[in-house]
Amino acid sequence: MLKMPAIRTYVDTSVFGGVFDAEFSRASKIFFAKINAGSFRLVVSPIVAEEMADAPPRIRQAYEVSLSLAEIVPVEDATLALRDAYLKAGIVAPQWAADALHVALATVAGCAMIVSWNFKHIVNFRRIPLYNAVNKAHGYSEIGIFTPQEVIEDEDETV
User: Fold this and answer.
1) Which end of the chain has fewer CB within 10 Å, C or N?
2) Residue 124 and residue 117: Cα distance in Å, rounded?
3) In DSSP terms, which residues pair with 144 in a beta bridge?
4) Considering only CA atoms, which of 108, 110, 114, 112 is closest in space to residue 146?
5) DSSP β-bridge partners for residue 115
6) How sure is the predictor about 3, in pLDDT bands with cuts at 50, 70 and 90?
């Protein structure tokens, strides 16, 4: 059987924390198992690293263990410009610019999707089409925005 190539997937800070959250633990652990199995190519950024600095030790440790499998994408001028376009479009308020930056990082890096448990500013049915409209207006591809739960369910694949 032909193995599908790993899907480049940007992961924000919430997914690492989800491993230790009763509501999100199961799906987060399965998601990371699928990264380890090669189904997803883990992509993170310096913003995730910065946010991890304030995380509890066990969450930081989960992140640090994952770094050996991760591609770290830089914050570039194009990324900041796209984040600013999201803010200008009113997708999120300026105080949530870091959330918009996660989406911009994933988009500019050419990831197929971003995975997050942030329902308010990222995985939000009102915001997703707005992020993608701005992406298209600025010459970028649309990006899939999902929770770990949504991407672990695949009837044709097992971990």
Assistant:
1) N
2) 10
3) 113
4) 114
5) 11, 146
6) confident
* Residue 118 belongs to domain with CATH number: 3.40.50.1010
- Host domain of residue 28: 7-152
Task: Indicate the residue type of 1.
Answer: M
* Model confidence pLDDT, tens digit, residues 25-48: 999 999 999 999 999 999 999 999
Q: How many CA atoms lie within 13 A of 43 on its CB side?
A: 24
| pTM for the structure as a whole | 0.93
Instruction: Encode the chain in three state secondary structure.
Output: CCCCCCEEEEECHHHHHHCCCCCCHHHHHHHHHHHHCCCEEEEECHHHHHHHCCCCHHHHHHHHHHHHHCEECCCCHHHHHHHHHHHHCCCCCHHHHHHHHHHHHHHHCCCCEEECCCCCCCCCCCHHHHHHHHHHHCCCCCCEEECHHHHHCCCCCCC
